[in-house]
Amino acid sequence: MSPRVFAYLLFAVCPILLASNLIFGAVAVGTITPFTLAFLRWGLASLVILPFAWTSLVRHRKLFLQQWKLILLIAFLGMGICGSGVYMALRHSSATNGTLIYATPPLLIVVLEWAFRGRKISSREAIGIVLGLAGILFIVSKGHLETLLSIEFSFGDLLFVIAASSWAVYTVLSKNSVFNAVPTVGMFTIVGLTGAVIQIPFVIWENTQYVTITTHGSQWFSLAALVLFSSVGAFLAYQYLIRKLGPATAGLVMYLQPLAGVIMAVLFLDEAFRSFHLIGLILVMAGVLLATFPANLLKRGRTGSHAA
Known about the structure:
The protein is mostly helical. About 80% of the residues lie in helices and about 0% in strands. The chain has 15 helices and no strands. Helix 2 runs parallel beside helix 11 (about 215-245), helix 5 runs antiparallel to helix 13 and helix 6 crosses helix 9. The longest helix has 29 residues, at about 215-245. The mean pLDDT is about 85.
Protein backbone atom coordinates (compact mmCIF):
# COMPACT_ATOMS: atom_id res chain seq x y z
CA MET A 1 0.00 0.00 0.00
CA SER A 2 1.41 3.38 -1.00
CA PRO A 3 1.76 6.07 1.70
CA ARG A 4 -0.82 8.23 -0.10
CA VAL A 5 -3.42 5.44 -0.23
CA PHE A 6 -2.77 4.74 3.45
CA ALA A 7 -3.23 8.46 4.16
CA TYR A 8 -6.67 8.45 2.56
CA LEU A 9 -7.67 5.37 4.55
CA LEU A 10 -6.46 7.15 7.67
CA PHE A 11 -8.49 10.17 6.58
CA ALA A 12 -11.63 8.05 7.01
CA VAL A 13 -10.53 6.83 10.46
CA CYS A 14 -9.22 10.11 11.89
CA PRO A 15 -12.67 11.71 12.54
CA ILE A 16 -13.60 8.63 14.59
CA LEU A 17 -10.40 8.94 16.64
CA LEU A 18 -11.01 12.63 17.25
CA ALA A 19 -14.65 12.14 18.21
CA SER A 20 -13.96 9.13 20.43
CA ASN A 21 -12.93 11.30 23.40
CA LEU A 22 -16.54 12.04 24.29
CA ILE A 23 -17.62 8.43 23.72
CA PHE A 24 -14.93 6.78 25.84
CA GLY A 25 -15.13 9.66 28.30
CA ALA A 26 -18.87 9.11 28.78
CA VAL A 27 -18.16 5.53 29.85
CA ALA A 28 -15.16 6.39 32.03
CA VAL A 29 -16.88 9.16 34.03
CA GLY A 30 -19.33 6.58 35.31
CA THR A 31 -16.85 5.75 38.09
CA ILE A 32 -13.67 7.76 37.45
CA THR A 33 -13.92 11.35 38.68
CA PRO A 34 -13.34 14.15 36.08
CA PHE A 35 -10.06 15.63 37.37
CA THR A 36 -8.55 12.20 37.95
CA LEU A 37 -9.60 11.11 34.46
CA ALA A 38 -8.08 14.21 32.86
CA PHE A 39 -4.87 13.76 34.89
CA LEU A 40 -4.49 10.11 33.86
CA ARG A 41 -5.39 10.78 30.22
CA TRP A 42 -2.92 13.60 29.57
CA GLY A 43 -0.22 12.28 31.88
CA LEU A 44 -0.17 8.84 30.28
CA ALA A 45 -0.57 10.18 26.72
CA SER A 46 2.39 12.52 27.23
CA LEU A 47 4.52 9.69 28.61
CA VAL A 48 3.72 7.55 25.56
CA ILE A 49 4.83 10.39 23.24
CA LEU A 50 7.81 11.41 25.41
CA PRO A 51 10.45 9.14 23.74
CA PHE A 52 9.64 10.71 20.36
CA ALA A 53 9.64 14.24 21.79
CA TRP A 54 12.69 14.04 24.05
CA THR A 55 15.12 15.56 21.56
CA SER A 56 12.78 18.47 20.93
CA LEU A 57 12.24 19.05 24.66
CA VAL A 58 15.99 19.17 25.31
CA ARG A 59 16.72 21.42 22.33
CA HIS A 60 14.04 23.97 23.25
CA ARG A 61 14.28 23.76 27.04
CA LYS A 62 15.43 27.39 27.37
CA LEU A 63 12.44 28.60 25.36
CA PHE A 64 10.06 26.54 27.51
CA LEU A 65 11.56 28.03 30.68
CA GLN A 66 11.31 31.55 29.27
CA GLN A 67 7.69 31.06 28.21
CA TRP A 68 6.53 29.04 31.23
CA LYS A 69 3.65 31.42 31.98
CA LEU A 70 2.27 31.13 28.45
CA ILE A 71 2.69 27.34 28.47
CA LEU A 72 0.91 27.19 31.83
CA LEU A 73 -1.99 29.25 30.45
CA ILE A 74 -2.22 27.12 27.29
CA ALA A 75 -2.22 23.92 29.36
CA PHE A 76 -4.82 25.32 31.77
CA LEU A 77 -7.16 26.13 28.87
CA GLY A 78 -6.53 23.05 26.74
CA MET A 79 -6.04 20.29 29.27
CA GLY A 80 -7.53 21.92 32.36
CA ILE A 81 -10.85 23.47 31.38
CA CYS A 82 -11.21 21.40 28.22
CA GLY A 83 -9.99 18.25 29.92
CA SER A 84 -11.79 17.98 33.23
CA GLY A 85 -14.53 20.38 32.09
CA VAL A 86 -15.67 18.07 29.33
CA TYR A 87 -15.75 15.09 31.67
CA MET A 88 -17.79 17.08 34.19
CA ALA A 89 -20.19 18.02 31.40
CA LEU A 90 -20.63 14.35 30.43
CA ARG A 91 -22.06 13.71 33.91
CA HIS A 92 -24.85 16.21 33.23
CA SER A 93 -25.42 16.02 29.48
CA SER A 94 -25.09 13.65 26.54
CA ALA A 95 -22.13 12.85 24.30
CA THR A 96 -24.36 13.77 21.34
CA ASN A 97 -24.84 17.31 22.64
CA GLY A 98 -21.14 17.59 23.45
CA THR A 99 -20.11 16.40 19.99
CA LEU A 100 -22.30 18.96 18.24
CA ILE A 101 -21.28 21.84 20.50
CA TYR A 102 -17.62 20.89 20.08
CA ALA A 103 -17.93 21.38 16.32
CA THR A 104 -17.96 25.16 16.83
CA PRO A 105 -14.41 26.13 17.97
CA PRO A 106 -13.37 26.92 14.34
CA LEU A 107 -16.04 29.65 14.34
CA LEU A 108 -14.87 31.01 17.68
CA ILE A 109 -11.26 31.01 16.46
CA VAL A 110 -12.23 33.26 13.54
CA VAL A 111 -13.93 35.68 15.97
CA LEU A 112 -10.96 35.66 18.37
CA GLU A 113 -8.45 36.33 15.59
CA TRP A 114 -10.66 39.21 14.41
CA ALA A 115 -10.89 40.65 17.93
CA PHE A 116 -7.25 40.32 18.97
CA ARG A 117 -5.21 40.04 15.77
CA GLY A 118 -7.11 42.28 13.37
CA ARG A 119 -8.15 39.46 11.06
CA LYS A 120 -10.77 40.56 8.54
CA ILE A 121 -14.05 38.61 8.45
CA SER A 122 -15.69 38.19 5.05
CA SER A 123 -19.45 38.21 4.54
CA ARG A 124 -19.34 34.44 3.96
CA GLU A 125 -17.56 33.93 7.27
CA ALA A 126 -19.95 36.27 9.11
CA ILE A 127 -22.98 34.33 7.87
CA GLY A 128 -21.29 31.09 8.90
CA ILE A 129 -20.59 32.39 12.41
CA VAL A 130 -24.22 33.45 12.87
CA LEU A 131 -25.50 30.08 11.63
CA GLY A 132 -23.09 28.16 13.85
CA LEU A 133 -23.99 30.11 16.98
CA ALA A 134 -27.68 29.68 16.16
CA GLY A 135 -27.06 25.94 16.00
CA ILE A 136 -25.46 25.96 19.46
CA LEU A 137 -28.41 27.85 20.94
CA PHE A 138 -30.82 25.43 19.29
CA ILE A 139 -29.01 22.44 20.79
CA VAL A 140 -28.62 23.77 24.34
CA SER A 141 -32.24 24.96 24.38
CA LYS A 142 -33.36 21.60 22.95
CA GLY A 143 -35.28 23.44 20.29
CA HIS A 144 -37.64 25.23 22.70
CA LEU A 145 -37.78 29.00 22.36
CA GLU A 146 -39.19 29.39 25.87
CA THR A 147 -36.09 27.64 27.26
CA LEU A 148 -33.88 30.03 25.30
CA LEU A 149 -35.73 33.10 26.59
CA SER A 150 -35.71 31.96 30.21
CA ILE A 151 -32.02 30.92 30.05
CA GLU A 152 -32.83 27.52 31.57
CA PHE A 153 -30.07 25.61 29.83
CA SER A 154 -28.68 22.26 30.88
CA PHE A 155 -25.69 22.66 33.22
CA GLY A 156 -23.80 20.06 31.21
CA ASP A 157 -24.45 21.87 27.92
CA LEU A 158 -23.18 25.14 29.39
CA LEU A 159 -20.03 23.34 30.52
CA PHE A 160 -19.59 22.06 26.96
CA VAL A 161 -19.94 25.63 25.65
CA ILE A 162 -17.33 26.87 28.16
CA ALA A 163 -14.97 24.03 27.28
CA ALA A 164 -15.39 24.60 23.52
CA SER A 165 -14.73 28.33 23.99
CA SER A 166 -11.65 27.52 26.06
CA TRP A 167 -10.40 25.18 23.31
CA ALA A 168 -10.73 28.00 20.78
CA VAL A 169 -8.64 30.34 22.96
CA TYR A 170 -6.13 27.51 23.52
CA THR A 171 -5.79 27.04 19.75
CA VAL A 172 -5.21 30.74 19.10
CA LEU A 173 -2.59 30.99 21.86
CA SER A 174 -0.86 27.84 20.59
CA LYS A 175 -0.30 29.59 17.25
CA ASN A 176 1.95 32.15 18.96
CA SER A 177 4.96 32.76 16.70
CA VAL A 178 7.33 32.28 19.65
CA PHE A 179 6.75 28.52 19.32
CA ASN A 180 7.25 28.33 15.52
CA ALA A 181 10.57 26.51 15.85
CA VAL A 182 9.17 23.85 18.21
CA PRO A 183 8.07 20.60 16.50
CA THR A 184 4.45 19.67 17.07
CA VAL A 185 5.38 16.52 18.98
CA GLY A 186 7.46 18.55 21.43
CA MET A 187 4.68 21.10 21.97
CA PHE A 188 2.13 18.34 22.48
CA THR A 189 4.29 16.72 25.15
CA ILE A 190 5.24 19.81 27.16
CA VAL A 191 1.66 21.10 27.18
CA GLY A 192 0.25 17.65 27.97
CA LEU A 193 2.63 17.11 30.90
CA THR A 194 1.92 20.61 32.22
CA GLY A 195 -1.79 19.97 31.87
CA ALA A 196 -1.48 16.78 33.88
CA VAL A 197 0.46 18.55 36.64
CA ILE A 198 -2.23 21.25 36.82
CA GLN A 199 -4.78 18.58 37.72
CA ILE A 200 -2.86 17.27 40.75
CA PRO A 201 -4.32 19.61 43.43
CA PHE A 202 -7.83 18.83 42.17
CA VAL A 203 -7.08 15.10 42.07
CA ILE A 204 -5.98 15.28 45.72
CA TRP A 205 -9.21 17.10 46.59
CA GLU A 206 -11.27 14.50 44.72
CA ASN A 207 -9.55 11.75 46.68
CA THR A 208 -10.70 13.35 49.93
CA GLN A 209 -14.31 13.55 48.73
CA TYR A 210 -14.95 10.55 46.48
CA VAL A 211 -13.72 7.17 45.34
CA THR A 212 -11.71 8.37 42.34
CA ILE A 213 -10.26 5.12 40.98
CA THR A 214 -12.54 2.45 39.63
CA THR A 215 -12.29 -1.31 39.92
CA HIS A 216 -14.49 -1.84 36.86
CA GLY A 217 -12.76 -3.27 33.81
CA SER A 218 -14.89 -1.27 31.37
CA GLN A 219 -13.70 2.01 32.90
CA TRP A 220 -10.05 0.97 32.70
CA PHE A 221 -10.60 -0.04 29.08
CA SER A 222 -12.14 3.38 28.42
CA LEU A 223 -9.16 5.10 30.04
CA ALA A 224 -6.73 3.07 27.91
CA ALA A 225 -8.77 3.94 24.82
CA LEU A 226 -8.72 7.64 25.75
CA VAL A 227 -4.93 7.52 25.96
CA LEU A 228 -4.16 5.34 22.94
CA PHE A 229 -6.93 6.28 20.50
CA SER A 230 -8.43 9.65 21.48
CA SER A 231 -5.08 11.25 22.40
CA VAL A 232 -1.98 9.58 20.92
CA GLY A 233 -3.74 7.92 17.96
CA ALA A 234 -5.70 11.03 16.98
CA PHE A 235 -2.60 13.23 17.30
CA LEU A 236 -0.33 10.96 15.24
CA ALA A 237 -3.01 10.33 12.59
CA TYR A 238 -3.72 14.03 12.15
CA GLN A 239 -0.02 14.90 11.90
CA TYR A 240 0.49 12.14 9.31
CA LEU A 241 -2.39 13.53 7.24
CA ILE A 242 -0.91 17.02 7.36
CA ARG A 243 2.42 15.68 6.14
CA LYS A 244 1.03 13.50 3.34
CA LEU A 245 -2.07 15.41 2.19
CA GLY A 246 -1.32 18.97 3.28
CA PRO A 247 -2.88 21.12 6.04
CA ALA A 248 -5.94 22.20 4.03
CA THR A 249 -6.98 18.67 3.08
CA ALA A 250 -6.12 17.24 6.50
CA GLY A 251 -8.23 19.94 8.13
CA LEU A 252 -11.32 18.56 6.41
CA VAL A 253 -11.47 15.72 8.95
CA MET A 254 -12.76 18.29 11.44
CA TYR A 255 -15.93 18.62 9.35
CA LEU A 256 -16.53 14.86 9.61
CA GLN A 257 -15.87 14.66 13.36
CA PRO A 258 -19.39 15.73 14.53
CA LEU A 259 -21.10 13.18 12.31
CA ALA A 260 -18.76 10.42 13.52
CA GLY A 261 -19.35 11.39 17.14
CA VAL A 262 -23.13 11.45 16.83
CA ILE A 263 -23.21 8.05 15.10
CA MET A 264 -20.98 6.50 17.79
CA ALA A 265 -23.06 8.02 20.60
CA VAL A 266 -26.23 6.53 19.12
CA LEU A 267 -24.66 3.13 18.38
CA PHE A 268 -22.53 2.58 21.48
CA LEU A 269 -24.16 4.72 24.18
CA ASP A 270 -27.78 4.19 23.12
CA GLU A 271 -28.35 7.94 23.09
CA ALA A 272 -31.43 9.27 21.34
CA PHE A 273 -30.94 11.44 18.27
CA ARG A 274 -33.79 13.93 18.29
CA SER A 275 -35.09 16.48 15.83
CA PHE A 276 -33.38 19.40 17.62
CA HIS A 277 -30.07 17.54 17.27
CA LEU A 278 -30.60 17.26 13.51
CA ILE A 279 -31.51 20.93 13.11
CA GLY A 280 -28.61 21.96 15.33
CA LEU A 281 -26.22 19.74 13.36
CA ILE A 282 -27.35 21.28 10.05
CA LEU A 283 -26.98 24.84 11.37
CA VAL A 284 -23.62 24.23 13.02
CA MET A 285 -22.05 22.39 10.09
CA ALA A 286 -23.42 24.88 7.55
CA GLY A 287 -21.91 27.65 9.64
CA VAL A 288 -18.54 25.92 10.06
CA LEU A 289 -18.33 25.14 6.34
CA LEU A 290 -19.19 28.70 5.33
CA ALA A 291 -16.79 30.27 7.83
CA THR A 292 -13.79 27.97 7.63
CA PHE A 293 -13.82 25.79 4.49
CA PRO A 294 -10.42 26.38 2.81
CA ALA A 295 -10.82 28.85 -0.05
CA ASN A 296 -7.94 27.24 -1.96
CA LEU A 297 -9.87 23.97 -2.13
CA LEU A 298 -12.89 25.81 -3.53
CA LYS A 299 -10.69 27.44 -6.16
CA ARG A 300 -9.07 24.09 -6.94
CA GLY A 301 -12.51 22.52 -7.42
CA ARG A 302 -13.65 25.30 -9.78
CA THR A 303 -10.39 25.04 -11.73
CA GLY A 304 -10.81 21.28 -12.05
CA SER A 305 -14.40 21.60 -13.30
CA HIS A 306 -13.39 24.17 -15.93
CA ALA A 307 -10.54 21.95 -17.09
CA ALA A 308 -12.93 19.00 -17.43
